[in-house]
Amino acid sequence: MGLVLKHVVQKKAGTWHYRRRLPRDVAALVGKNEFKRLLGSTEREALRNYPKVNAEFERVVVDARRGNTSASPASATPMELHRMAELRARELAAMTVHIGGRALPGSDPDAADVIRESYLSRQSDAAGDEVEGRAVAILSSGGKLSRPAPTIEDARKLYLKERVDGDINETAKTGRVNRNMEHLSAAGVGKDRALTSLTREDARNVRDYLVRDLGMKAATVRRYMNDVRAVINLGMTEFGLRDTMANPFQNLPIKGAEASTTAASDERKPIPEAMMAPLRQRIEAHAGEDLWRIWRMVEGTGCRLGEVAGLLLSDMMLDAPIPYINLVPHPHRRLKTAGSVRRVPLIGDALKAAREAVKAAGKGPALFSSYGRLRGADTASASLMKHVRAITDDPKIVVHSLRHRMEDRLTLAGVSEFDRNLILGHSSGGMSERYGGPDARLEVAERGLKAALGVGKRPRQKPRG
Question: Per the confidence metrics, is the pTM higher than 0.70?
């Protein structure tokens, strides 16, 4: 009785193989038309390996359609291809290969030769699979095939994964990192350059390209160089290169950078008091209910927009003696710094908006179902900005200006810098140095917010007479 499984063929040499055409849309994304894997040299081996290989096919299709093509041969770096091949080589090494009357593991030199010959025999009718071919080479060499050196592209992908994915400003940060890489390529430092080959001359060439060819101001060049340095630093650390190279972008002099740097306080400005009423009226009348509640909660707490938009129902502690938001990281929404993990009191209209949001959310889990997802804050920001621009065309007034407004109100209310940082989450996370526990910090934050919002103040009495 022959083996009857879909997408399985037996070669003349007697080995069994999984061959399946990829859907047209997936083939365009991953750069190949067919998915092929060796199943074994006997029917029994093929039956045992079929479910795993078939599941791998399905995973390739799903990942490609979700946009996760970084691990596909078409877009993978040489180092990524090698890592995928190492995994495949381990699978091949665990297979059983029958030679004459002997049953040998795939790691045995004789068995490895049979697997290699089987792979080579099927290359005449179609282009080879890079991962499979490298896996066979790793197996044949006894695992001694060296791993390619990490490149700038490897460092970029790692940086996006570790430092940007899930960030509240993910889209903007991703765009900036990618623009940096484009500038490097334009300056002659291509993405396929090995990190260890980077030189100080490369760094100067990139700097000079930004200044001379793109006409960037010194402060802008410094920001770009800081971003590049961060990408290279992470790559050096995670790829184990600290002992073999120095970061050539470290301490790179940029003439005029200090003198031309725009103060952070000048990049955005608080929303003027006279503009608040028209903005609130506009958003209440024209934005959706969720956006209106998000605006009120940001306005009344000084939280970042992404912190509020990404809240879960489980973050809302409305029945506590002091109602508060428990700001913690989530897979769909990271927090900016360690100090961003905090309890934020809810007072006045912000508390009212929070109660409305909890009621509207039902069983959740997201407090705002349209925005409590990866990159949901970008959608909320874009929608709210349309309403902000309907009221003002001042480029320095944006949704984030609500946070600057709260910082100004805290300052004018006499709240100390340490306590302002506690409320706004500016710190490095060392709040316990002054206040021992979360309850004490919550009380301090409540006092500060009440002072800023004028809650609990007695009305000024008119003089008699």
Answer: no
